[in-house]
Structures are given as C-alpha cells and as structure tokens.
C-alpha cells in the first residue's frame, strides 16, 4: 500500500473504539511491572516494522521523513515558518524558525530543537509539525536545526553543528527577536542527546541555556542498560537498531566514552534546569532515569516524568494517541512556565 494511503489508514485506526483495539491487539503487554498503553500496543502491532527489521540508511531516512508527521497534531496555521541558516564549523547549517503569530517581535523566548533519528536520520521535514505545535502550545519560537548526519558526517561533526546553533542564536538574538537569556534546548532521542551535550558545553557561557527539555533521550553510548534487554524487540525502537546507529555515528569505539557523545558521563555541575520525558517501553528508559538522578544529585532543578505505557518516540504521535497527547501537553506547560 502506498505510504500516503497508510497515513490515512493509521489515522483512521487510531479512532477505532478502544474495546476493538484491545481485541485486535491480543493480551496486554506487561513488562517490569508496567503495562503498554492499549492504543500504543495496537499501533506497534499493526504499523511498526516487523521485529528485527534493519533498513538501509536511505530507507531509514525516507521512513522518518514520510512517517514523521502521520500522527502529529494538524498543522497549526497561526505559526509562521521562516528559513534561516548560519555558518557552522563544517559549513552552512539550515534551520526553520517556527514563530506563533502572538509572539512578541522582540525579546521572545525560544526553544532550539534538535530532531531525533539516531544521528543518522530525521530532518526538518520529519519534525516540522512537531516543532510547529511546540511553538504554538509552548508560546515560544522554535528553531529546528538541520544538523549534519552520519555516516557521511561522523562524530563530532553533527554535534558541533548543534553547539554552533546555540552560539549563533545567541549572537543573532536581536536580529531574530530573541531574548538571549530565554533560550531553551530540546530534542527527542538523538536530539535529546544533542540538547544535553549543548547544555553541558555552554553552561558557563555569557548567556547560558535556560532549560533543557529531553524527550526519550539517548545519553550513553558506552554501555547498554537493563532496559535494552527488557525492550530489545517489538516496541518500535529496538536494541539492534540502536547498535546500528551507534556504529554509524561514532568515528571510533573510544568515542563512546566522550561526554560529547555520552552526556551521562559528563560533568553536570551548573547546567541549566532540566525536564526529562521518558517512555516506559523504551531501550533508552534506564539511561534517561539515570541522567535524571545525576542531575538531581548535582543540585540541578530537574523534573523526571516516566510515562509508563508509551514507546519511543512518542513526540511524533501526540496528535492521535491520547496518552502521548497528554505527555505533549504536560511538556508544553513546562515550556510556558520555565522558558
């Protein structure tokens, strides 16, 4: 079936009565004392790739771009999208600025957003509707960054683009209508990795980040936590895929020990306040929880929210999956309150 048809099938399926979903999905998935949300279980069973599937780099990228907006909120017409770019260490980096119509023309808060995709996939296209809704609900500008991807650009090229994005927004704050003291960092999965790294690397800047919002973040490439084994297959993101991403991203095995790749290993003293949004059925669950504990131990104001019944990455399905939408609404409330 053509991908355009599958989008409408997936959206229609999300509107099925819950008893029918439960009947079609079979026995509820229960692992480690948690139960998978019934709508999520239905979607994983009928719309995720079969367990153990490893697509090529291009197939993975195409999948992100085609499917990334299938189940997001409907495009919000009041948010204007502008192209912008800056010069990073390896050349020009494209961005999109999502600006709500009600936002002040100057001194506005902004969230710099880094998309997920294992540092291999994802793009401005795959997360456009997500960023548009974050801007609308969060009442802030959102600058989405099209950082360079592996394997063409292995570590640390892409992460240097992300650091340069923060520096460039600060340097151009007046032109962009941004308050340099109200710049947040956000991202999902690999984008959460990037946001955490930038927060660490720029904690002593003249205008340090104000907030880091990490959705299902990838924080440790040096080892696999227990949740890798618990959720190795069958819950969208799989252990084998994470290993594939890691091999494509790192330039050499020792890079996994570098805090620029694994921020869980980094120094978090003095980093900006954090909000971590973690899925209960996710190989990355435990490293997210561990990072939350590390931040709290360092005295960093930190909110850790574990959404027991969700899978990775729920930010892209919040328009049609009620449990994901509730998590999205909670996240944007934190944006409004803390940015």
Written overview of the protein:
There is one protein chain. The protein is α/β, with parallel strands linked by helices and 339 residues long. It has a single domain, classed as Rossmann fold (3-Layer(aba) Sandwich). The chain is 38% helix and 21% strand. It has twelve helices and ten strands. The protein has helices at residues 3-14, 18-25, 38-47, 57-67, 128-138, 157-171, 173-176, 190-201, 226-230, 239-249, 285-297, 322-338; strands at residues 30-31, 34-35, 79-88, 91-100, 108-114, 141-145, 178-188, 211-215, 274-281, 302-311. The strands form two sheets. The protein has an eight-stranded mixed β-sheet, sandwiched between helices. Helix 8 (190-201) links the parallel strand 7 (178-188) and strand 8 (211-215). The longest helix has 17 residues, at 322-338. The chain is globular, with a radius of gyration of 19 Å. The chain starts with a helix and ends with a helix. The mean pLDDT is 95. It comes from Rhizobium alvei. Residues 111-315 form the Alpha/beta hydrolase fold-3 domain. GO terms for molecular function: hydrolase activity.
Determine the CATH superfamily. Answer: Alpha/Beta hydrolase fold, catalytic domain
- Helix-strand string: HHEEHHEEEHEHHEHEHHEHEH
Task: Tell me the strand percentage band.
Answer: 15-25%
Tell me the CATH architecture: 3-Layer(aba) Sandwich
Report the radius of gyration as a whole number of Å: 19 Å
Q: What strand order characterises the main sheet?
A: 3-4-6-5-7-8-9-10
Which secondary-structure class do the elements indicate? alpha/beta
Helical stretch tally: 12
Stretches where pLDDT is under 50 for at least 5 consecutive residues are none
